[in-house]
Amino acid sequence: MHTNRKIRKTTHNATSILTAIGKAHSIPVYIGASKALSRPAMHPPTDIHGESGLDGTSLLPTPTVEAVTSPPAIDAAFAALRAQPPGTAWLVATGAFTNAAALFIKYPSLAAHVAGVSLMGGAIGGGFTSAVLGMVDGVPRVGNWTQFAEFNILADPEAAAALFGHVILKKKITLVPLDLSHLVLATKEVQELLLYGSGGKGRRGEREDGEEGRAREGKTTLRVMLVELLLFFAKTYRYSLPPPSIHARGETDKQKRRLRHHRWAPIA
Questions:
Q1: How do the domains of the chain map onto residue ranges?
Q2: Are 149 and 122 in contact (CB under 8 A)?
Q3: Mean predicted confidence (pLDDT) in 216-241
């Protein structure tokens, strides 16, 4: 759907990621909303997510399957959720809430059928958690787009209002605001786990550049790609917004270049 970049690019990114993890033929991608419910699409500048909306690596593969164009995304979502037993299926939205709101507007009976709705967006502030959100002109910052606004909400406030004000859904919503997501930091240890896996074994060895270095078993092209994407977003998020918007710590550009040394394996 719309937000990071235009719908054509975000759809391509979704199908590329599924190709990378070997799920392109088992998880269909439907083309969502290209704009907010009642206002034009809002895209962040390219210095955050890059021109493609998913910059930071050259390892993203060409999609092996195209997005599904029929039925429309909202109808497909309704059919998938309705096919599950009552009170068991969850709807998850990690970007602007346009698709989620449009789904329940078109199919109001679905609200009673789903177990819940998980939304990543918004911000509480006021010491809701111990997350450090920073200061703007001496005033505590709450949002990540303006001093008070979080991007996923700001991109389609009418969609957010439709969900939060829904007489049934408002009791089923689990909200993950910035106050929570900023507690989940990709520390050096987390990056190592992503890159090598829990079973990766350290050993001394020769790097491709001839220098002695540490090689690890378990490292694959897919793992390198994911860590590169993480580091790119962490860096742009840090320097494009007021501090301390840091989702990853402990890597430098020099260390990033070293990611591609040592051991390789097929993406899928």
A1: 1-70, 73-150+157-182, 188-258
A2: no
A3: 79
